[in-house]
Amino acid sequence: MTGRGRSVAVVGAGIAGLCSANILSEFGFDVHVYDRTPDVGGVWSVTRRYPGVTTQNNKGTYAFSDFPMPDEYPEWPTGEQVQRYLDDYVEHFGLRRLLRLGTEVVSAEQDPESERWTVTSRSLDSDETAVEEYDYLVVANGIFCDPFIPPYEGKEEYEGAGGRLCAASDFHDLADAAGRDVLVVGYGKSSCDVAEALSEVAASTTVVAREVTWKMPRKLANVLNYKYILLTRLSEGLFEHIEQRGFGRFLTGRGKFVRNGLLGSIEKIARRQLRFDRTGLVPEGSFERIVRHAVSLATEGFYEKVEAGTISVRRGRSIAVLREKDGRPVAELDDGSVLPADVIVCATGFVQRVPFLSAAVQERLLDDDGNFLLYRQILPNDVANLYFVGYGSSLFSPLSAEAAALWTVNHLLGGEIPPVEKRREFVRTRLNWMIERTEGKQARGTNIIPFSLRHVDEVLDEIGLNVGPGTRFLQWLLPARPSSYRHAAQELKRRHSVADKKAASNRHASTHMPIPWDETDRR
């Protein structure tokens, strides 16, 4: 442990921040959680939910290990339901007292001698500032922190004509699109979700997509839930890892014909089921490119509406300039065509930022291209008492965040890690590989997809808390269940002789049912 005290500031009250706070407080750390939104949830906050947003994962895999989603939730919960689930998590584990919501972290400055952090925060309600000192800082503001809106030429003229330009996360009310001509920029899950939802009320809905990418149906051939395809170790084994091992080595080596056959079959079914040929939306390349950047689940009803003409897709196009024409706001595309555009919703990605850290600290966090240099996606090599949780884009976000929080606690309690030179070499090697396999879409060094479970393995193996071989074997065939990892925190407490801090009353206060013991979790 690099510091002397036990006080921790956590920036962000989304999935990563909440589980960090829960695990840190379990181990006796004095925690405060800051978030500028008025509620918990991060990307699921009421301030950031766009119409039509649902989880990409099913509810069984998008949950904390010790707190399942309610049985009454649908297979793919809505954004509102996920936020309610996270608020229930706060209540269940008694975290409300740790939260400082509606409070923005203005700066976090580190004293070069003591290596403690001075956090300056500002209440968004009262505009009052506060200054507090902490021994450690956990950054959990997320890799989907600030939405990116392209700097379109002519924005002022466009808005002067009454046009509205906004990010998907800033568009909250369907009524704002009623009877209007809407453009949605992008082709990821968010853009398709928004377009499908707004098409119900808009006069016209057009998706402007620079690139058309592969999508996975929720149920392949309307029968097989996609979780049996993409949320297993088998799916990860189909793609070549920098340290390939076991059956995965066979699948990407001598058994590549098996791998190619599986991926080819999925491609054919998805292509037919999602009407790619009929709509002219067959993506470039093969289906395996779906994992190049981020796996995208097809939005229910989107392709049916494209085929019916309710939604138009301008493939391979981008907005060149915004302007006014005949008193109305319009968008001119790069092919010269002009589209009426009362509303333009940009689902064009996010900017990963830590604006509260000084430029000097950020220089030690990033390489020359702005990529985060984090060991295990958690630990900077050159800044003491600073940790990142949730800085790995994963198909198992809550589980990955829990693993990172456990790793952080273990390190704070004196757990050993490789020397700094070996960590630097590891980070650089992994980042170079990430850049190559994602074709430059590495999300500033945070894109671990499709190797979500492999990453969890590496994090938990290093601290000796991974599930046993029986569970890992089942995960080759069945979707990984977060509940399989629920004993890790208790094992870490036993190892470090930490008393259980959770009150029994909290254990039984929730309406959530306890998870029965699974024999395959025995180690």
Could you describe the 3D structure shown?
The chain is α/β, with parallel strands linked by helices and 523 residues long. Helix content is 31%, strand content 18%. The protein folds into 2 domains: 7-145 and 352-521, FAD/NAD(P)-binding domain; 148-215 and 274-349, FAD/NAD(P)-binding domain (3-Layer(bba) Sandwich). The protein has helices spanning 15-26, 79-92, 155-160, 189-198, 227-230, 233-237, 246-251, 256-273, 276-279, 302-308, 359-365, 397-412, 420-437, 452-462, 469-477, 488-496, 504-509, and strands at residues 7-11, 30-35, 99-101, 103-110, 117-123, 129-134, 136-139, 146-147, 164-167, 181-185, 204-209, 219-220, 224-225, 311-315, 319-325, 328-333, 338-340, 343-346, 350-351, 374-375, 379-380, 386-388. It has a 5-stranded parallel sheet with strand order 3-2-1-7-22, covered by helices on one side. Strands 9-18-10-11-14 form a 5-stranded parallel sheet. A 3-stranded antiparallel sheet has the order 4-5-6, with no helix packed on it.
